[in-house]
Amino acid sequence: MIVILVPGFWLGASSWRDVEPVLTAAGHTVRALTLPGLESASADRTGIGVREHIAAVVAAVDAEREPVALVGHSGGGPIAYAAVDARPDRVARIVFVDAGPLVSGASVNDALPAVGGDAPLPDWSFFEEADLTGLTAELRERMRAEAVPEPAAVTREPIELSDERRRAVPATVICSAMPAAQVRDLIAAGHPYVRELAAMRDVDLVDLPTGHWPQFTRPADLGAAIVAALRS
């Protein structure tokens, strides 16, 4: 299967480099994306918002002759889901990596601090301790060296969804910083954070205990979890 990897905020295609070999060894063809404005710290991010990022993922789907699997990490998860909304007949499965879908009209994370039109990777103290599990000093240094400021509009603009068929596309949520049991409890309680996830018709929750960036902290295990999801 063709697997399109959508990175989370501040990251590009290189963030998947330790995950890709597991997918290719399982026979999958991998397309790791770098979304507009994330090419380098000096890239022009003027006019880049969430619609441009969704359009880039949709273009990657359209470039393939056969249905694809979409894998979205963190903030890339809602963007990948918006691409499912745009092309529900072209996506065979979506895999959320410590992420989930948003309801129409929600923004990905408007709490991130911005400097002008950029939302740079915050200090580590900004994140919850659970997010940082397994992220050693060496991995933090590597991630920060690779990090590129996110276009602030991507974090703040609402994602608009319109095609109910998106909810019929099978999904897997790989739960790392937040355990699957906690996600199930939120669904049972009707929490707004998981309202769209609760509306999806075919969802598997899979635990991968680590922090928010398993592509750095447990890449081989993340690759194996994605491969297992694609067998479903």
TrEMBL record:
Gene3D superfamilies: alpha/beta hydrolase
InterPro entries: AB_hydrolase_1, AB_hydrolase_fold, Sec-Metab_Biosynth_Hydrolase
Annotated ranges, domain AB hydrolase-1: 3-222
Pfam families listed in its UniProt record: Abhydrolase_6
Record-given protein name: Pimeloyl-ACP methyl ester carboxylesterase
Naturally occurring in which organism (per UniProt): Amycolatopsis thermophila
